Amino acid sequence: METNVVKDSSLKDQILREVKEEIVKLEEVFNVKPGIAFIGFMGVPLGKYNIPFHLKLASDLGFNVYNETQADDISEEELFTKIDELNRNDDIHAIVLLQPLPSHLVPVRIVNRIDPKKEVEGFHPQNMMKSLMPDIATDAYPMCLPTALGELFKSNGIKPRKDDEWVLLLDNEFFSNQLVNMVTRTAFIKAVPHDCILTVVNRESSKLPEHCRRADYLVVVTKEPGYVKAEWLKPGVCIIDIYSNLVREIPSKKNPGKIVPVIRGGVEVEMALGRAGVIFPIPGGLMTIVLCTLFRNSLLAFKNRNQ
């Protein structure tokens, strides 16, 4: 069986190009650029790579970028004060809380402090509710993860069938992390067709292999790189890897004086080749398009404010 390893650079390039072109046009009309603030922490895994990457990409797209990197030992009250300042700043249209957070901070409490109109990923509890029940409130921003997955499926001709089974594999830690738990469940309630089966299973479950073997779509959110075994995979399964793990750091091949991260998800691509039908890997895959969707939503926040 041939496995399609999806790293849809054409879709990524298309979305980012459209965002960049629209920012130029809007700046001509309003004489101001959309502002985006990133709250991050250098001491968390991948923080020293993720923060500069997000800042540079946003700047390259034409956003006014606010670097709100915080001390790893910041208290919740201090962080609330900073978020309140960003909420009041009319030059900032989008606030992005980079994950993960230092362990002493409760993610759902921090996200809840962000103005829902500026929280553009769909993580704020109010925004999740709008995603799940659009009839009772206007959904200002489409939730990034299910939107990105839908666009990837469309661009690659993937169409779930009636009674296909979706299995979400999550670490025990992510069940106790209210934000990750809520985001994952909300995103896939939105993404999974109503005539399909959706099962959420703890990685610690003794029945994990049998759940995985039934999966037509296997979504993996784990801090254990390469955890999923080949014998767990149903032939032809579509694998959607979500969580980026820092495995090691090595000198860059292009610039040996520069250290770069080696990132892996919960599924080793080489292991799945010839057994899976499709895999959205880490790095690349779905999360790249999620990032593009975040920037598109940030632009939408600017347009909403000016309308």
Which secondary structure elements does this structure contain, and how are they paired or packed?
Layout: E1 4-5, H1 9-30, E2 35-41, H2 47-61, E3 64-70, H3 76-88, E4 94-97, H4 107-113, H5 125-132, H6 144-155, E5 165-170, H7 172-176, H8 178-191, E6 197-202, H9 208-214, E7 217-221, E8 238-241, E9 245-251, E10 259-264, H10 269-272, E11 278-280, H11 286-306
Parallel strand pairs: 1-11, 2-3, 2-4, 5-6, 5-7, 7-8, 8-11
Antiparallel strand pairs: 9-10
Helix pairs in contact: 1-11, 6-8, 6-11
Text of the CATH class of the largest domain: Alpha Beta
Helix fraction, binned, reads 40-55%
The gyration radius over C-alpha positions equals: 19 Å
CATH superfamily of the largest domain: NAD(P)-binding Rossmann-like Domain
How many separate helices?
11
Detailed description of the structure:
This protein has about 300 residues and is α/β, with parallel strands linked by helices. It has 2 domains: about 30-120, Rossmann fold; about 145-290, NAD(P)-binding Rossmann-like Domain (Rossmann fold, 3-Layer(aba) Sandwich), CATH 3.40.50.720. It has 11 helices and 11 strands. It has helices at about 10-30, 45-60, 75-90, 105-115, 125-130, 145-155, 170-175, 180-190, 210-215, 270, 285-305; strands at about 5, 35-40, 65-70, 95, 165-170, 195-200, 215-220, 240, 245-250, 260-265, 280. The protein has a 6-stranded parallel β-sheet, sandwiched between helices. A 3-stranded parallel β-sheet has the order 3-2-4, sandwiched between helices. A two-stranded antiparallel ribbon has the order 9-10. The chain is globular. The protein starts with a strand and ends with a helix.
